[in-house]
Each structure stands twice: as C-alpha cells, then as structure tokens.
Amino acid sequence: MSTYLPAEVGMPLAEVDTPGLILDLDAFERNLARLNESLAGKRVMVRPHAKSHKCPRIALRQIALGAVGVCCQKVSEAQALVEGGVNDVLIANEVVGAPKLKLLTALAQRARVAVCADNAENVTALAAAARAAAVRLDVLVEINVGANRCGVEPGAAAVALACRIAASPNLRFAGLQAYQGAAQHLRKVEERRAAIEAAVAKVVQTKSALKAAGIACDKVTGAGTGTYLFEAASAVYDEIQPGSYIFMDVDYAKNEWTESGIPRFEHSLFVWTTVMSRPAPGRAVVDAGLKASSVDSGMPRVADAPGVEYVKASDEHGVLSLNGAADYRVGDKLKLIPGHCDPTVNLYDCFVCVRDGRVEDLWPITARGAVW
C-alpha cells in the first residue's frame, strides 16, 4: 500500500494538504539549542526521549549536538532507531515476552542497547535470551521514585535485583533508571521541585545500599522536560531524558516555568487543518478530530487566534467556537497546538518541516505504530 504524503519539498505551507503534522524548523532548532544552553556548567549528559518524535532524523540531530544517545519505550521503537543509524539506545522500560526479547538481543548484536528491569523473573528471561544470542546485555534496575508505575522499591529490593543481574553471565548491571514521571506536569514549580527532591533521596538511599553491598553503580538516568534542571543540579543523576522539549504542547504550556530555571520552550509542532464546514454563526468545523490530534491531556489549542476554542472532537471532525474572536471561510487553513505531542506524533507518517512559509523537508516518523 502506498503512503500518501500531504506535501512536497518547496511547496508553500498554504498548499500543504490536511490534516498534516507541521514542524516549524526555526522553533524546533531554537528548542534544541535552548536545552544545551540551560545545561551549561552541569555535569550531566543528555539522552533525549525518542518516544516524543519516533524519528531517527531527529535523534541523529540531537546526537550531533552532544547527546550520548537516545531512549525509547518499546523494543520496536529501538529497532526503528537502530535501523535509522542510531547506535546507542536505552529502552527505559521493561521488555517482557519471548518475541520481544529475541528482537532485543538481536539489536544488541548491532548497536549498544540497554534495557530496564524491576522483576527477578524478567531478569532470568533476559539472561536466557542474551545467552542464546551470545550477547552481553546492559540492564538497569528501575526504581520507584514516586510515580508508582513500574519500578522496584528503593533500597534493599533494588540491591537484590542488581545482585541478580550482576550474577548473570550474559548481563551487566548498568545502573539505575529513576524517572519521576508524575512530577512532569505538576503545575507549580515548588511542587515539581519537592517531588524531585524526594526522588533524589530515594536514589541516594539506593546508591548507598549498593555501595554497602560492594556493587558499583555506574549511572543514574531519568528526568523529563518539566524537571530536568532539578535532576541535573542534584549531583546524583548522570543522564537526563527530556523528550517533549523539542515540540512542547498545550499541557506542558500550562506548567509554571518562572523561578524554575528551566527555559520556556517554544511550540514547534502543529496539526495543520482545514475548515470544512461553517454550519452556524460562531461555529466552524475542521478536518482534524480524534484521528489527527490526541486529546488525552486536553483539547488542542488554535494557534495565533486568541479567543477561538477547540471545544469538541469526534473521529474526523473538530468543532471550533469562534466566540466573536475570528471568522473563517470554508477552505481556510489553520494551525492547532496538540494537547499532548507524543501520541499525536504517532498518528502521522511524516513531519512536514517548514521554514519561512515553505516546506523544506519531509522527515519520516519511522517508529509510528511501534507499540510492541
């Protein structure tokens, strides 16, 4: 089946078909630079989270600017990245099941690939798969630092799991995954700061317990766009994993940023949409609904049109309340800022990369649909 592309290189933005996923290259590049500038003088390395973009072209740009590699959530994402030329990938998640473990260890034969674990049975399965593939696999112990999702409890339980990994001939204990995901969208700066201080304490507790057990902990990795400077300033984290900073979205924009030290990154990702109906005064309908923009973190926001609200989404339609703030004709095109960038990206085959009002390039979203 052929893939339909909404744009061609050189085309004016106005001619790009809809719905399409637009990447403003100038804003995107400023976000890349802003992250590095904010880390000046900090000793941490950057390992951006590729689940936000699912695109080897973007990962390679991040690495060219100094990132040590990238992380992702699924082994199929890792496969897309490795095949796209990325040679250092951390799957910041657990990988369970024989088919996935077979793919994981095959990737480890081609690139530096690491994975997380929080369960002894999973460690046993990882060791068996690594032995069958004749590879030595890096495994990080994921600890629960407050998100209450995956992760073994800090301290003794984490040490026991690290000992099990270290005792497995085809595995290497490579450090701790300590991501406080629940802190990323706490609105107030002090709430986020307090959550990370609590996370850091759990990491320090676990590192001390590992040291007492004679186990070296080479790396602590974690952090996200909403908190990364707090982890970077802790002197405990060695790597940070921000992802959404390159795009930003409506939900992240609701955070308070003043006094955090974390820069306010720009919106660079937009859903390009067409007004398909004007059924009543004050109401317009666009062709970008649930299949064009994720609404799990709230509705999209209409860019450059204060007062206009995206109020309702169905499969193929988005309803705008104009509120007297703007008027549109059928066929007009406009930009939406996604409520949540990561799942929105997963709906598209490519980024339509735009600069100065024209399409500069099309970047394939190679790991689209890579959910296993």
Portion in helices: 25-40%
Which secondary-structure class do the elements indicate? alpha/beta
What's the number of structural domains? 2
Strand % is 15-25%
Q: What's the story with the biggest beta sheet?
A: 9 strands, mixed
CATH superfamily of the largest domain: Alanine racemase
Order of helices and strands: EHEHEHEHEHEHEHEHEHEEEEEEHEE
Q: Strand tally, please? A: 17
- The name CATH uses for the topology of the largest domain is TIM Barrel
User: Which stretches of 5+ consecutive residues score pLDDT under 50?
Assistant: none
Helical run tally = 10
Give the class-level CATH name of the largest domain. Answer: Alpha Beta
What does the overall shape look like? globular
Radius of gyration: 22 Å
The CATH architecture name of the largest domain reads Alpha-Beta Barrel
Written description of the protein model:
The chain has ten helices and 17 strands. It has helices at residues 25-38, 56-64, 75-83, 98-108, 120-133, 156-166, 189-212, 228-232, 250-253, 341-345; strands at residues 20-24, 45-46, 70-72, 88-94, 112-117, 137-142, 171-177, 220-222, 239-240, 269-280, 283-286, 301-302, 309-313, 318-321, 333-337, 350-355, 358-364. The strands form two sheets. Strands 1, 10, 11, 12, 13, 14, 15, 16 and 17 form a nine-stranded mixed beta sheet that branches. An eight-stranded parallel beta sheet has the order 2-9-8-7-6-5-4-3. The protein is 28% helix and 23% strand. Helix 3 runs parallel beside helix 4 (98-108) and helix 4 (98-108) crosses helix 5. It has two domains: 13-20 and 265-364, Beta Barrel (Lyase, Ornithine Decarboxylase, Chain A, domain 1); 25-247, Alpha-Beta Barrel (TIM Barrel). The model has no long low-confidence stretch (mean pLDDT 97).
